[in-house]
Write a structure and sequence with these properties.
Helix content: over 70%
Largest sheet: none
Structural class: mainly alpha
Number of domains: 1
Radius of gyration: 17 Å
Distance between the termini: 25 Å
Order of helices and strands: HHHHHHHHHH
Number of helices: 10
Strand content: under 5%
Number of strands: 0
């Protein structure tokens, strides 16, 4: 019991902190702890619910930077892609998809972390936003990885850290919110999951608020670097989960 409690609190603190700092990555940093003490479907349900709820302070912090038109360019294609992703889930090997995404994140994060100057994708790339959103929706429907490609794309856009977060975090929150509703509909949130959630969520909130405070201290221009560095770390974690059958 003590070990389970430690793992749940550690999951909440680590996943919440990353969410507060970067606006994504809750599951990648929390699942490793939760999977030590909970079945995969319960661990995923708790992570999804915590990710949605602890995203609210982050979204509120950057509310002045949220562009409804920009969100629509990402979200509407994503909503169209989610059913396709759910359908492909029955046909494709999700483990293989996760491994390919992990390798992509490692290559992307490693390459751009080593570059002195980051390229800037300037201009109104509406088609790029829509395409990344659509693919994010497919990956969200298949494996809950909705934030991977949007994070890569947004990190290279010449926006302020507030604009970048305002594009990324609401997107993830909506997609994962839909996933949470679907899990609830399927009866995943039973008494045991709810009890574990009530342990993990307070720790997630504490970690998120501290991460959000750290986000406020990040110098302008460094947020992209942090996103790219987290891409590399997240790719490594995802590859480990996939290799050991945790995804």
């Amino acid at each position: 019991m003590e070990f389970a409690l430690i793992c749940m609190i550690a999951a909440g603190l680590s996943g919440g902190f990353i969410n507060g700092l970067a606006g994504f990555g809750t599951g990648l940093f929390a699942l490793g702890w939760l999977l030590q003490v909970l079945p995969p479907h319960e661990a995923v349900a708790i992570v999804v619910a915590c990710s949605v709820l602890v995203s609210l302070p982050g979204v509120w912090k950057v509310r002045m930077h949220i562009s409804l038109a920009r969100q629509a360019r990402f979200l509407l294609p994503a909503l169209a892609g989610m059913p396709l992703g759910t359908g492909l889930l029955q046909l494709l090997d999700v483990r293989l998809l996760s491994m390919l995404v992990a390798i992509l994140m490692l290559v992307y994060g490693g390459y751009f972390s080593l570059r002195r100057d980051l390229p800037a994708i300037k201009g109104n790339w509406y088609g790029g936003d829509a395409g990344v959103g659509f693919l994010g929706g497919i990956m969200g429907g298949m494996a809950g990885l909705s934030g991977a490609l949007p994070s890569m794309w947004i990190a290279l856009r010449p926006w302020s850290k507030g604009e970048q977060r305002a594009a990324l975090q609401p997107f993830n929150m909506v997609i994962l919110g839909i996933v949470a509703v679907l899990l609830w509909r399927d009866g995943v949130f039973d008494a045991a999951v709810t009890k574990a959630f009530l342990i993990v969520f307070p720790a997630s909130l504490v970690g998120s608020l501290f991460g959000l405070w750290c986000f406020g201290k990040i110098p302008e221009g460094m947020y992209s670097r942090i996103l790219i560095g987290l891409m590399f770390v997240s790719g490594a974690i995802l590859l480990v989960y996939t290799f050991f059958g945790k995804v």
